[in-house]
Amino acid sequence: MKKICLLWISCLFSTALLAQWKPVGNGDYDWGPFHVYNVSLYSENGEYQDGQRPMMLSFKFAKPVEGRSFIISLIKEIKGLDLGENVEKNLESLQRAFPDFVPNDILSYIALEDKGYFILNDEVLEFTLDAQFNQALLDIWLSPKTSFSKLQKKLLGKEQSSELDIKELMVKPEVQQLHEGDIEPQLPPNFELNNISRD
């Protein structure tokens, strides 16, 4: 039975299984001081064009995240994009059955021409979603209209993710140059005066 199931999956998703995934870009999603996950976008040629298929979004979790909470955040973003009730119904059905995530779990969403599906680590999840949902899910991270819009340039490879952030942290503040007349010598606060001899 397991072999039949694997054969069926490989036939259904042969395009994605045979795809040579190349990274387009990636970025970190942080909530306050917490790093929640890293999200990466992949295509067959390492570039992104609107409507291109197959595409893959991959999330590597750094913290435990409830599957229900993850889907609720998707529902909020989809409602903000106003992409229709059918997409929202898909998300609500996912909410009831989506697994929870632990650190180092990798959730991938693969968008094909007319359907899409999730893979958690090495296991294909049983939901198959329609073409409208494919674009909606990609738009959550790639549209400038969502709260994830800060990740857009990084996912599209237009902005380096980690290197840019490190450079920003290493910027040196401007320091005003001191002149000899500005310096007032001061004793350190713990300086012991009793060792000084008085004339």
Automatic annotation (TrEMBL):
The keyword Signal applies. Residues 35-157 form the Chalcone isomerase domain. Residues 1-19 form the signal peptide. InterPro entries: Chalcone_isomerase. Residues 179-199 are annotated as: Disordered. Keywords: Signal. The keyword Lipid biosynthesis does not apply. Coiled coil: none annotated. Pfam families: Chalcone_3. This is Chalcone isomerase domain-containing protein. It comes from Canicola haemoglobinophilus.
